[in-house]
Specification:
The complex is a heterodimer. By secondary structure, chain A is of the alpha+beta class. Helices cover 50% and strands 19% of the residues of chain A. The chains are: A alpha+beta, B mainly alpha.
């Protein structure tokens, strides 16, 4: 069992979205990925504060890309999940799996 | 473009300047499909989200700095009273060492009162922002000062000329925020990359 502070649900969603996007994870694509996968559109404010919190916890790192004209010359802030972030989200998902084990949901048993 | 600069200015009050720029870039990129209303509502929601995060992450720390701000404000007001008002009394030929002499309750005294709350408010905001590095603590201090001065506010409101007192009180509260904003802007210019 991990001794670190447990991840909130939205923190897990954000970490998984960054992992799915690999090298192209910045605010706009992370939000689009979450919307596509969960059918929930997160508010930008909630996303940015969560990203900052994850970075302070050492679960993600960020780097600035090149400025682009469509963004008024502003750079994209790309995110990468750290090894600690991968461990944290994996452990959190394992906890869910353990809770699901043996339950009969939607007509089927979860092994 | 001008609104993007204003949005970046607002966000840089609550986060590192390069993060503020990247956030505004994201909102501009998405905002082209949603419009100006969407852009500004999300700028303000993002800024308030950053402020609220400080409160939810460490409420006791924010409250502690708010109380320190209240204490600093009272000390600064008393110091001003002692130094400036007594000098004014002396210059006006009165012997009292504390407070105003009713006989010299003039426009000059009113001006000194306004100056007192302006300076004390500005320095309080500056000090709280410098020590806490959080606008949440500044807003909490503003709320706490309002609560503690509620009795004074009531007296002002029932005074024959409440407008002046309420205007001074509101200006003082604004000065606390302005002091904090000045500190944030000053440090933002010197701040290394927050990325």
């Amino acid at each position: 069992m991990s001794s670190a502070a447990p991840l909130g649900e939205f923190e897990q969603v954000v970490l998984l979205a960054i992992l799915r996007l690999d090298e192209n994870a910045y605010g706009v694509t992370i939000r689009a990925e979450i919307t596509a996968c969960t059918d929930r559109e997160p508010a930008p404010g909630a996303l940015y504060t969560t990203l900052d919190r994850l970075q302070e916890k050492g679960l993600v790192t960020s780097r600035l890309g090149d400025p682009t004209p469509q963004r008024g010359g502003r750079a994209k802030r790309f995110f990468t999940v750290t090894a600690a972030g991968v461990r944290a989200v994996t452990e959190a998902q394992r906890s869910y799996q353990r809770l699901m084990k043996g339950l009969r949901l939607l007509g089927g048993a979860h092994a | 473009m001008r609104s993007a600069i204003a949005a970046e200015w607002i966000l840089s009050l609550v986060t590192a300047p390069d993060r503020a720029a990247a956030t505004v870039g994201d909102l501009m990129e998405e905002g082209s499909a949603h419009g100006v209303g969407w852009f500004w509502s999300n700028v303000l929601r993002t800024a308030s989200g950053h402020v609220w995060r400080d409160v939810s992450d460490s409420p006791l720390r924010v409250l502690g700095f708010a109380f320190a701000g209240l204490l600093a404000h009272i000390v600064l007001c008393l110091l001003y009273e002692f130094l400036v008002n007594n000098t004014w009394n002396r210059l006006a030929g009165h012997s009292g060492w504390w407070g105003y002499q009713p006989a010299i309750y003039t426009a000059g005294i009113y001006a000194l009162t306004v100056l007192k709350f302006t300076i004390a408010g500005f320095l309080t905001g500056w000090l709280v922002a410098a020590r806490s590095e959080s606008l949440a603590a500044v807003f909490a201090a503003v709320a706490l000062i309002a609560v503690c001065f509620a009795e004074t506010l009531y007296r002002v409101a029932t005074h024959p000329a409440p407008g002046f007192g309420l205007a001074v009180f509101s200006a003082m509260e604004m000065c606390v925020v302005v002091g904090a904003i000045f500190f944030r802007r000053r440090t933002a210019r010197r701040q290394p990359s927050g990325t």
